[in-house]
């Protein structure tokens, strides 16, 4: 069952938010969407944290575009694993994003021009502090659950460590306690594609009325390769050549699109360049790189999670080589070291990292069962 048409809400925060970089930002907006009803005790709230290119629009149909379905619509809604008949679900567009919350495209009140490259660096921890203010706005003292996949899972973990008494359950899907060197390398190559685009103009391309589309296209193509498994790409595309009806199967020996997988990647790159902001891409990938809660504890994740009290569900996917199951097991071990309540599911799915966004019956069944347990402790 669908939530139907949903409308976002803009929350304004005048008080400065101190950032990990030492900078601060005031008079900023965060765009949110909410689904379901907050009960009288305000103990049925679920926060959904988004990944790199997603937003506050978690579920339902956008009021502005009937083709725009929420990025986790198969997970959140009436009768779905995160059931909005039982829970009040909040999606927040993070600070620095390009979907309505204050970010590089926004006007800097100090200059009257877009922030552009001057927008401060933000971290996962900064986002969590901003989300805590959203919780305060709704007078939510404690979330029934904080949930996220990929970068969203990092935020859920950070919530359990930074605000341990404000989270009852933490659901971390296809995530990691820190990026590997390989992951940082992929992000750097993608950023380099943007930075080297002649239309980037040091991040102030808005003043030139251009957009570094070429860099964005390449960045998305690189990212998309890492989101899929080899088996999934082989099944979808194999080595099929693109041929018009009547054309021979001979190679054209050109550098134009020849293979189906090339066509797919170029399509994804073009689509991404249409809707995403390059400065936002740089900011968010750097936030991914910086996340490392164990760093302040001599690289001991168990020590970093010593104050956590939330129950956990951790989910990984066997073919996810970007955030492999081994990384999820690191989280599970740290939680068990602290004698915490943790459930772990490793789903044998062929779709790579993107599996967390897809409708796998075993995966959804696990999440549904976990939220049914949460619902039993929530007042009607």
TrEMBL record:
<dbReference type="InterPro" id="IPR000073">
    <property type="entry name" value="AB_hydrolase_1"/>
</dbReference>
<comment type="pathway">
    <text>Amino-acid biosynthesis; L-methionine biosynthesis via de novo pathway; O-succinyl-L-homoserine from L-homoserine: step 1/1.</text>
</comment>
<dbReference type="InterPro" id="IPR008220">
    <property type="entry name" value="HAT_MetX-like"/>
</dbReference>
<keyword id="KW-0028">Amino-acid biosynthesis</keyword>
<feature type="binding site">
    <location>
        <position position="220"/>
    </location>
    <ligand>
        <name>substrate</name>
    </ligand>
</feature>
<protein>
    <recommendedName>
        <fullName>Homoserine O-succinyltransferase</fullName>
        <ecNumber>2.3.1.46</ecNumber>
    </recommendedName>
</protein>
<dbReference type="GO" id="GO:0009086">
    <property type="term" value="P:methionine biosynthetic process"/>
</dbReference>
<comment type="function">
    <text>Transfers a succinyl group from succinyl-CoA to L-homoserine, forming succinyl-L-homoserine.</text>
</comment>
<dbReference type="GO" id="GO:0005737">
    <property type="term" value="C:cytoplasm"/>
</dbReference>
<feature type="active site">
    <location>
        <position position="320"/>
    </location>
</feature>
<comment type="similarity">
    <text>Belongs to the AB hydrolase superfamily. MetX family.</text>
</comment>
<keyword id="KW-0486">Methionine biosynthesis</keyword>
<dbReference type="GO" id="GO:0008899">
    <property type="term" value="F:homoserine O-succinyltransferase activity"/>
</dbReference>
<keyword id="KW-0963">Cytoplasm</keyword>
<comment type="subunit">
    <text>Homodimer.</text>
</comment>
<feature type="active site">
    <location>
        <position position="353"/>
    </location>
</feature>
<feature type="active site" description="Nucleophile">
    <location>
        <position position="150"/>
    </location>
</feature>
<keyword id="KW-0012">Acyltransferase</keyword>
<dbReference type="Pfam" id="PF00561">
    <property type="entry name" value="Abhydrolase_1"/>
</dbReference>
<dbReference type="InterPro" id="IPR029058">
    <property type="entry name" value="AB_hydrolase_fold"/>
</dbReference>
<feature type="domain" description="AB hydrolase-1">
    <location>
        <begin position="44"/>
        <end position="359"/>
    </location>
</feature>
<keyword id="KW-0808">Transferase</keyword>
<feature type="site" description="Important for acyl-CoA specificity">
    <location>
        <position position="322"/>
    </location>
</feature>
<dbReference type="GO" id="GO:0009092">
    <property type="term" value="P:homoserine metabolic process"/>
</dbReference>
<feature type="binding site">
    <location>
        <position position="354"/>
    </location>
    <ligand>
        <name>substrate</name>
    </ligand>
</feature>
<dbReference type="GO" id="GO:0004414">
    <property type="term" value="F:homoserine O-acetyltransferase activity"/>
</dbReference>
